[in-house]
Amino acid sequence: MRKIIMVRYGEIYLKGLNRPYFLNLLLQRVKEALIDYDVSVWLSDSRIYVSDFEDSYLIINAVCKVFGVHSVCEAVEMSKEDFTDIESQAAEMMSGFSGTFKVNARRADKKYNLNSPQINAKLGAAILKNCPNLKVDVKEPDNILHVEIRDKAYLYVKVHEAVGGMPSGSNGKAMLLLSAGIDSPVAGYLVARRGVSLCAVHFYSFPYTGERSKDKVLSLAKILSSYSGKMKVYIVPFTKIQMEIHEKCPDNYTTLIMRRFMMRIADRLASSCEAQAIITGESIGQVASQTMEALCCTDIVVQKPVFRPLIGFDKEHIINIAKEIDSYETSCLPYEDCCTVFTPKHPVTKPRIDRAEQAEQYLDTENLIEEAISNVEVIEI
Length: 381
Ligand code: ATP
Ligand code: MG
Description:
Blueprint: E1 2-9, H1 19-33, E2 40-44, E3 47-51, H2 56-64, E4 69-78, H3 83-94, E5 99-107, H4 116-130, E6 134-136, E7 143-149, E8 153-156, E9 159-161, E10 173-177, H5 183-192, E11 197-204, H6 211-228, E12 232-237, H7 239-248, H8 254-272, E13 277-279, H9 292-299, E14 306-307, H10 315-324, H11 328-331, H12 353-360, H13 365-374, E15 377-380
Parallel strand pairs: 5-6, 5-7, 10-11, 10-13, 11-12, 13-14
Antiparallel strand pairs: 1-3, 1-4, 2-3, 4-8, 4-9, 7-8, 12-15
This protein binds adenosine-5'-triphosphate and magnesium ion.
């Protein structure tokens, strides 16, 4: 008898012939998440198992963060041959609980000499005999003892819900526009949870925004990469572009034009790191540059699809996710972002594409973009 951790996958079960590909990728991701622990991890019978751990809490926490994992539980693995041993184990495991319970048996080994209802009845009786605090309630029990009969017997009570999604690396790559705010890390997280690998671009306005603001963005990238795996962060010097826009374009269009430059640069950097799409943390109507008209004016300058996973989310909802994924505190550090440096008093809320194009005529757009890209700093996280 020993303790093991059973890892269940979510949506991968919907896959047909390529399910082994997704399962093996998930196995690899679970192994990576546990790289600092001296444990055994393996795939058997479409299930991932972990054994030889010291502190199950640490292992469960780490595995629950792996995209593609639906739930995790710590189980007792034992021989299925002697049913009285299983009865004793069931009674012992339930002795710490009170209220109501039921036994939920699954017999994957169809040749086993007891069927599921028989296992439920026998183990229920053994538990009732040993645990005077417990009563049976099959409809809405407080506690469920799960029993799986496979090559061995597996018994567990608590099921830890994991993040879900699809294994990282199973769904291509996208370029995240990562600011120092609350929204963009959440946007990146939501797309990454679907198995998309990330790279990120940050527009940096030194000396208006300092080293600490860059460090903050890199810390956010690190938090994201703890879920989605390694990523490249492109730090783009943006001051010259902002100054030019500020000097040469109508004040009410400066934010919009700046965003059009960000998108163009992100689009090109995405191509150089083989990202197929762009992600931003925009949400309809949150600020002047996120009205329907403004979003249309920024979308039009890029070739690649722009994913805005927060488009329909209220700020409160976004903050709740930021807290869940542990990015909120870092996002709330006070260091400024480049957007706040040159904010006009009255940004246009219903910009027009022709007016934006007209305003940009005074800029040497192509050279400004090329210069910024040639001075990019690339940091591997
Ligand atoms: P956030 O909280 O993510 O900063 P926000 O509500 O402050 O978003 P904006 O500043 O208008 O909104 O930015 C909208 C989106 O544009 C951000 O979510 C991010 O994807 C991108 N963005 C803004 N500033 C930068 C930057 N300095 N570098 C990279 N991307 C940026
Ligand atoms: Mg911002």
